[in-house]
Amino acid sequence: MICFFIGLLCAAALILFGVMLYDSNRFVTVEYRIRCRGLKRKYRFVMLSDLHNKCYGKHNERLFAAICAQKPESVLIAGDMLTSRLPERFGPALELTERLAERFPVYYANGNHEYRMKTDEECYGTGYVRYHDELVKKGVVFLENDSVCLSEAGIRLYGAEIGKEYYQKMKQGRMTVSYLESLIGRPEKGAYNILIAHNPDYFPVYAGWGADLVLSGHVHGGIMRLPVLGGVISPSLRLFPKYDGGCFREGESTMILGRGLGSHTVPIRIFNPGELIVVSLEPE
C-alpha cells in the first residue's frame, strides 16, 4: 500500500512538472469586448505585461507574430517587460518593444521592476536610462505619471507609477485617491479614461479616482491556478489573491488584469500559461 501511494505521488509530481514546462513556455490570446460610455468610435489595442525578458522563439517571433495578427491600433504596456537584476539583462524586452514601435504606437507605463531600476542607480547603474532612451528614440511614449490624449477615439490614457511602499511583501500599503491625484491629476471630464496601473491591489482606489478602464498585471495569474480557488500566491506572498487575473468591476470602473507573459526568480507557471490580452472597445 505504501509503495502504491509513493508511486501515485511520483506520478502526480511528474504530471505537474510536465504541466509546468508546458505552461511556462506558451501563451494564449484572450480577448475582451467592452461597451464604453463616451467613446467616440471603436478602438482595438493589445496589452502586454510581465514579459520579464521571456522569449517565445528566436527574437520573440511567436509573440510578435501573434500581436501583429490582431491588427491593433496601439500596444499598451502595463509594466515589467524586463527584470531588475544584476548583471543587467534587458535585451529581449528592448528588442520586442522596438520592433513593435516600428509597426504600432506603443504606450509604456512602468512596473515595479522598471521603477526599481530607475530609482536605485546606486544598485542598478544606468541600465534603466539606457533602456528608456533607446525606446524613446524608436517612438515609444512612456507614461511615467503622465497622460496622452487619443483624440479620435475620445480616450485619455494615463500611466501611474506608484512608489515602492505599495509593493511590500506580506502586506498592502494604504493608498488614497488624493495620492493618485498627486501623481496624475484628476481624470479628464468627457473623455473615456484608461489608467495603466501595474499593481491591481489598489483597484478600488483607481475606481474611486475615476478610471473607466484599468489595465494591470504584476500578479502573474497567481503562479499556479486551481479550480474554483484561482491563483495560489501573489508577488507580495499573499495566498489566493482577490485580483489574480481576468475582468473585475468596481462601481462604474472595469479592470482587465493580465496574467503576464513571463516570470522571474522562480520560473514556474502551472495551469497558468502566459496571456496576450486583446481589448476591443465599442461605443455604448
Q: Which parts are unreliable, with pLDDT below 50 for 5 consecutive residues or more?
A: none
Mean pLDDT: 92
Shape: globular
Determine the fraction of residues in helical runs and give it as a percent range: 25-40%
β-sheet strand percentage = 15-25%
Characterize the largest beta sheet: strand count, sense, and whether it forms a barrel: 6 strands, mixed
Q: What is the number of strand segments? A: 14
Give helix and strand order, one letter per element, not per position.
HEEHEHEHHHEEEHEHEEEEEE
The rounded distance between the terminal residues' Cα atoms is: 62 Å
Evaluate the radius of gyration.
19 Å
- Spatial ordering of strands, largest sheet: 1-14-2-3-4-5
How many separate helices?
8
Structural class by helix and strand composition: alpha/beta
